[in-house]
Design goal:
Helix 4 crosses helix 5. The protein folds into 3 domains: about 100 residues, Orthogonal Bundle (Helix Hairpins), CATH 1.10.287; about 50 residues, SH3 type barrels (Roll), CATH 2.30.30; about 80 residues, Alpha-Beta Plaits (2-Layer Sandwich). The chain contains 7 helices and 8 strands; from the N terminus they run H-H-H-H-H-E-E-E-E-E-E-H-E-E-H. The mean pLDDT is about 80. By secondary structure, the chain is of the alpha+beta class. Strands 4-3-2-1-5 form a 5-stranded antiparallel β-sheet. A 3-stranded antiparallel β-sheet has the order 6-8-7, with helices on one face. The N and C termini lie far apart (about 130 Å).
């Protein structure tokens, strides 16, 4: 009759070869290591299960961006729960009685209630961010003057990565005003200056004609609009062009529009002036 070999049997077999004096210490050490390994496995497995579950919810109104945010927050909650259980298990292995653990947990809850109000505020802010759908993972947002891509949203903080690659970690309780650049569409804005000697009407007509040829640009949703003269600067008359385009494509659209405008102005002989200044020298008359 075959018998199953359990992890306890394996541990007893390993401890059999150790001196009796150090067996209790080694037993606790193996239990602690096993608990840490189990916590790591639980976190990895639960993260994959949650991600797989959210990806299969095709019958629910959950977009990909919101699914990524839900995955980030749920995994954060599960991670804290596993850490909490793992720490209490390790303390139990170290000989701390269960009654003392209950007292420690009660004292910890009181400490959190009195001295960790900021953590509670951050967690509450995380839930509001999720349910109000202010932003999600992958969005480009501006928070507290920082513009970047949302890499993760946990219960406590939001992680942004700016165009320089720097990571900014902002507590959810202090998010405040959020500017989301990834809702439905975004405007690409290009300003171009022409010399004062050029005809404004002719330049606007040329720009309008050139904007009619942007149908080959997949990122542009509508024909760009020439908004007209927006500034009379020191050395140029400024004309603005506004193009409605897909989210996250405005930098590329602006760069392409500038290239086309420059080539068209060169073809039409319209001068884009460089900064210049006229100096008048006044000589004082002798008395």
């Amino acid at each position: 009759m075959e018998t199953a070999v359990t992890s306890v049997d394996i541990m007893d077999w390993v401890l059999f070869f150790l001196p009796p004096a150090i067996r209790p210490i080694c037993t606790r050490l193996l239990q602690i290591i096993g608990t840490l390994v189990l916590c790591w496995i639980l976190i990895r497995v639960s993260s994959r299960v949650v991600k797989s579950f959210l990806q299969r919810q095709t019958n629910m109104p959950i977009t990909e961006r919101k699914a990524n945010t839900l995955n980030s927050i749920i995994c954060s909650v599960l991670k804290y729960a596993v850490y909490f259980i793992g720490i209490f298990s390790i303390l139990n292995y170290l000989g701390v009685p269960s009654s003392s653990l209950v007292v420690v947990a009660s004292a910890a809850s009181v400490a959190i209630g009195l001295g960790a109000q900021g953590i509670a505020t951050d967690m509450l802010g995380g839930f509001f961010i999720l349910f109000e759908d202010n932003y999600a993972v992958g969005d480009i947002v501006t928070i507290q003057g920082v513009t970047g891509t949302v890499e993760s949203v946990t219960l406590r903080s939001t992680k942004l990565r700016d165009v320089q690659g720097c990571v900014h970690i902002i507590p959810n309780g202090s998010v405040g005003t959020v500017t989301n650049l990834c809702r439905d569409y975004i405007n690409a804005i290009v300003t171009v200056g022409i010399a004062y000697g050029e005809s404004i009407d002719h330049a606007i007509a040329v720009l309008t004609d050139e904007m009619q040829k942007t149908s080959d640009m997949e990122s542009v949703l509508e024909t760009p609009v020439v908004a007209g003269v927006t500034g009379l600067d020191d050395s140029a008359v400024t004309i603005k062009v506004v193009a409605k385009c897909k989210i996250k494509t405005s930098p590329a659209v602006e760069a392409e529009l500038r290239r086309r405008i420059k080539n068209r102005f060169d073809k039409e002989g319209i001068d884009i002036p460089f900064p210049q200044r006229t100096i008048h020298i006044v000589q004082e008359k002798e008395a």
